[in-house]
Amino acid sequence: MSLPPIPKAELHLHIEGTLEPELAFALAARNGVELPYASQDELRAAYSFADLQSFLDLYYALMAVLRTEDDFADLADAYLARAQAQGVRHAEIFFDSQAHTARGVEIGTVIEGLTRALDAAPSKYGISTRLIMCFLRDESAESALATFEAARPHLHRIAAVGLDSAEVGNPPSKFREVYALAREAGLKCVAHAGEEGPPAYVWEALDVLGVDRIDHGVRAMEDDALVARLAVDQVPLTLCPLSNVRLRVIDRLADHPLRSMLDAGLLVTVNSDDPAYFGGYADDNFAAVRDALGLDAETLRILARNSFRAAFLDDETRELYLKEVDAHGQPAA
Ligand SMILES: Nc1ncnc2[nH]cnc12
Ligand SMILES: [Zn+2]
């Protein structure tokens, strides 16, 4: 009998990136939205990306089907069901508020819909969750500030802020002010940096925004002083291996720097980013790096432990999850 997937936390997951073609077509029919694809297969055939921007174009276009609280609840519920099957015990979930408010969907609709599914997740799927509101970095700093103010009545639902979308030309320092407000409000802070952008963006995320984690950060490996800083401070990096191949950050999975990052003493985790688009959920990413990089069971256990070490959990819950990882694959006591 094969072992169930190792228990893990997923820390880099865009809920809009879990929209599978089947659900996209179902929501399109429910909401009377016309999709520019004749079938699910035709839509899937469009999932071939030259870079981050070519993915983002499709990712934002498909969001047109998400309109009501029920839509967001159904989207999150479908993700949680898949995550459970992949051994995910805790999920910290991004959402792109501005991508919805720009289409006339209110922020409260998004947050209430998502939290309905998230609130049910512990009893329904045995998964604890956090919500992370991302600012779109290719929108203005003023738009991020307005988004944060619009979210104020909902901040009890939000654990952290993040920064995503088109990286190059949109450095973290552009968002200094809104991150200061978020921290003042008691939120944790993360930011995508060093995916397509240079190591300088990772430095800015650390020193200007004061982030608690870096999302991606693969390009940090180009800067030895930055690697030393990340190692000394044990700043978690949320890697997304299958995403990096699909968005051509690297050519082949075998070229992924994950192993050198571990060897450099970095606190790296493995995540799925936008699994509906990139060919795999959390455990699929674990299996892919295991096979491509020849990782042994102990290294996979370190990655699973790292995911809980890097999560926004209280110490007691973190310890419980770490015990689950250690017990995985051991004979019952
Ligand atoms: N991989 C990614 N990088 C930046 N923004 C994103 N939004 C959704 N997926 C993203
Ligand atoms: Zn991402």
TrEMBL record:
* Pfam name, any one: A_deaminase
This entry's comment on the bound cofactor is: Binds 1 zinc ion per subunit.
Instruction: Spell out the Gene3D superfamilies in the cross-references.
Output: Metal-dependent hydrolases (3.20.20.140)
Keywords of the record, alphabetical order, are: Hydrolase, Metal-binding, Nucleotide metabolism, Zinc
Single GO biological process annotation from the record: nucleotide metabolic process
Q: Where is this site: Important for catalytic activity?
A: 216
Q: InterPro entries recorded for this chain?
A: A_deaminase_dom, ADE, Ado/ade_deaminase, Metal_Hydrolase
Q: What is its EC number?
A: 3.5.4.2
Q: Which reaction does it catalyse?
A: adenine + H2O + H(+) = hypoxanthine + NH4(+)
The record lists substrate as bound by: 274
Q: Does the keyword Metal-binding apply?
A: yes
Residues binding Zn(2+): 12, 14, 192, 273
UniProt GO MF annotations: adenine deaminase activity; zinc ion binding
Q: Which SUPFAM superfamilies match?
A: Metallo-dependent hydrolases
User: Where would I find the Adenosine deaminase domain in this sequence?
Assistant: 7-327
Answer yes or no on keyword Transcription regulation.
no
Q: What is the required cofactor set for this protein?
A: Zn(2+)
The protein's job, in short, is:
Catalyzes the hydrolytic deamination of adenine to hypoxanthine. Plays an important role in the purine salvage pathway and in nitrogen catabolism.
Task: Indicate what this protein is called per its UniProt record.
Answer: Adenine deaminase
